[in-house]
């Protein structure tokens, strides 16, 4: 039996998220398992680094699977991609030791949220970014974003359906960087709660529209109540871009996808 790590890119617009759900509901995990099973000639179970919401995208979702089937790396990638829809693609594969686990060995996960701030909605970036036509106070939003860094109780920023046992997370960085009409939120943490990033973005947008002062973020944390926070931002602009592991695993670190996802922050 051989364990393999894979890096997957997908456009989540037509899926109900990463995780396999009830029969008849499209998920990235189930679609990937079906394609890999065809190449392996046996049932393959895929374990991802994390879960994504419905319609959320990924540029390098890390996952692993086990198989006794002997295939070259090229055969795994080309064969599986030929069976996948055009909005999911395996980018790389690497044989791993059996102690590697895509979820439990990850020490950090990183997302980017892309806001397109312009009077008119984009056409070519439909469902790839979140369009905001209001004028935004970017400096206030940048100050508010910094308040999420460190260790906090994120009870106010998780969905009611969140299944995590506890809401405390450590955020290594949370930065907001403008690039022309684009605003790039880059956030990395030891883990994320259900809707956590989208709820953070919703609050930042309210601050950016001068609905609240920057200090309002402190009040939301103190409330430890989802009702204290703002609306959940759309999934369109959210990308899972990387999971991080101990260097001993020597996993590839490809580019983050399109140019506007690789801009420095």
Automatic annotation (TrEMBL):
Gene3D superfamilies: Pseudouridine synthase I, catalytic domain, C-terminal subdomain, Pseudouridine synthase I, catalytic domain, N-terminal subdomain. Residues 9-104, 144-246 form the Pseudouridine synthase I TruA alpha/beta domain. Substrate binds at residue 111. GO terms for molecular function: tRNA pseudouridine(38-40) synthase activity. It comes from the Bacteria. The active site is at 53 (nucleophile). SUPFAM superfamilies: Pseudouridine synthase. Keywords: Isomerase, tRNA processing. CDD domains: PseudoU_synth_EcTruA. It catalyses: uridine(38/39/40) in tRNA = pseudouridine(38/39/40) in tRNA. Its EC number is 5.4.99.12. InterPro entries: PsdUridine_synth_cat_dom_sf, PsdUridine_synth_TruA, PsdUridine_synth_TruA_a/b_dom, PsdUridine_synth_TruA_C, TruA/RsuA/RluB/E/F_N. Homodimer. Formation of pseudouridine at positions 38, 39 and 40 in the anticodon stem and loop of transfer RNAs. Belongs to the tRNA pseudouridine synthase TruA family. This is tRNA pseudouridine synthase A. It comes from Acinetobacter pollinis.
């Amino acid at each position: 039996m051989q364990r393999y790590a894979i890096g997957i890119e997908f456009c989540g617009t037509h899926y109900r998220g990463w995780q396999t759900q009830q029969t008849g509901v499209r998920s990235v995990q189930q679609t990937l398992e079906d394609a890999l099973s065809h190449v392996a000639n046996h049932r393959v179970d895929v374990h991802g680094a994390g879960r994504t919401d419905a319609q959320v995208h990924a540029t390098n979702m890390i996952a692993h699977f086990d198989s006794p089937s002997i295939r070259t790396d090229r055969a795994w990638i080309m064969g599986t991609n030929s069976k996948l829809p055009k909005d999911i693609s395996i980018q790389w594969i690497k044989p791993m030791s059996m102690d590697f686990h895509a979820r439990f060995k990850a020490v950090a996960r990183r997302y980017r949220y892309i806001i397109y701030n312009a009077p008119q909605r984009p056409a070519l970036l439909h469902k790839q970014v979140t369009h905001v036509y209001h004028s935004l106070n970017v400096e206030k939003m940048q100050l508010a974003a910094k308040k999420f860094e460190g260790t906090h109780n994120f009870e106010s920023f998780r969905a009611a359906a969140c299944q995590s046992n506890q809401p405390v997370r450590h955020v290594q960085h949370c930065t907001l960087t403008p690039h022309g009409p684009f605003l790039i939120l880059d956030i990395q943490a030891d883990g994320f709660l259900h809707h956590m990033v989208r709820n953070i973005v919703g609050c930042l947008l309210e601050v950016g529209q001068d609905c609240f002062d920057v200090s309002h973020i402190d009040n939301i944390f103190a409330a430890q109540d989802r009702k204290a926070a703002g609306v959940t931002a759309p999934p369109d602009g959210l990308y899972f871009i990387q999971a991080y592991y101990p260097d001993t695993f020597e996993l590839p670190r490809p580019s983050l996808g399109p140019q506007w996802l690789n801009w420095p922050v």
